[in-house]
Structure to design on (300 residues):
């Protein structure tokens, strides 16, 4: 009860401090600004950890909001940045931020900086390194950075036995589907959030579809070699003499295989081929960032 009363008092004092703040770029549209950590420290009268709890509750409310978290990455990032400045020894908020901060490349990079703060204060916690590697690999398309992030986790308490193999694959194969699947399966196993689970399961189905589509690509090359022409329909792989395939691989979403407008073999349901990690917009932003980094000699 004493802690609740203190928390309420700290909240009242901080609410007054908020009104003194200018609007900052990290404030999401329509939402209250997140104050500077130094101001909160003064306003909280030394109860930094309680103030941290207050902002943690706000971040959790966004994560559990029925409206979803889309478009609110930067709000979550600002809250977790603040609460982890007030109390950097918290643990779960670092990974919570990484889970939800996926709206855009800047959001992912902010999440990475938070994870690095978590690693600094919890050097024996392998999960922060895993989430950091996941972000580099899955969202930023940087296998080398992912390997660098994950390698120090080898041998840490509780680290899965498969991590050395994953690091080796990151170093050697880069964008392999098996690496993507391994990351996603681990993320799926560790999250309790139904929205995140659905997203990971969807991505895993896309990876499985891509794996089977690649098998069809190889069969298509054999078809062209034998027939001297390209496919008109995917089913031709079965109907030529002798058949290139005895049967088509099952489409994992319960759909079928077709040629899209560009002549690429795709799932009729998905209508696209899986591209590890990135959509076109993200790739463009990353390329721009890399160009800027090269020009300025920055470390991305």
């Amino acid at each position: 009860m004493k802690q609740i009363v203190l928390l309420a008092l700290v909240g009242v004092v901080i609410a007054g401090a908020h009104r003194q703040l200018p609007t900052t770029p990290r404030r999401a549209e329509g939402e209250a600004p997140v104050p500077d950590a130094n101001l909160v420290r003064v306003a909280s009268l030394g109860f930094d950890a309680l103030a941290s709890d207050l902002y943690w509750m706000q971040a959790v409310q966004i994560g559990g909001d029925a409206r979803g978290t889309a478009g609110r990455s930067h709000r979550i990032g600002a809250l977790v940045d603040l609460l982890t400045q007030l109390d950097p020894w918290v643990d779960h908020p670092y990974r919570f931020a990484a889970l939800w901060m996926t709206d855009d490349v800047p959001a992912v990079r902010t999440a990475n900086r938070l994870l690095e703060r978590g690693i600094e204060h919890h050097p024996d916690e392998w999960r922060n390194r895993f989430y950091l590697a996941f972000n580099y690999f899955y969202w930023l398309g940087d296998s080398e950075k992912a390997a660098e992030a994950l390698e120090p986790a080898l041998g840490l308490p509780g680290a899965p036995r498969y991590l050395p193999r994953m690091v080796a694959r990151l170093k050697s194969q880069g964008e392999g589907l098996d690496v993507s699947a391994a990351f996603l399966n681990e993320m799926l196993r560790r999250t309790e959030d139904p929205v995140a689970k659905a997203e990971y399961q969807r991505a895993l189905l896309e990876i499985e579809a891509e794996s089977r589509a690649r098998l069809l690509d190889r069969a298509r090359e054999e078809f062209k070699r034998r027939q001297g022409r390209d496919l008109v329909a995917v089913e031709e792989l079965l109907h030529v003499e002798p058949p290139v395939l005895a049967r088509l691989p099952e489409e994992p979403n319960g759909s079928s295989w077709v040629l899209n407008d560009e002549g690429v073999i795709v799932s009729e349901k998905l209508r696209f081929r899986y591209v590890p990690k990135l959509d076109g917009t993200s790739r463009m932003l990353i390329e721009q960032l890399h160009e800027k980094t090269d020009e300025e000699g920055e470390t991305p």
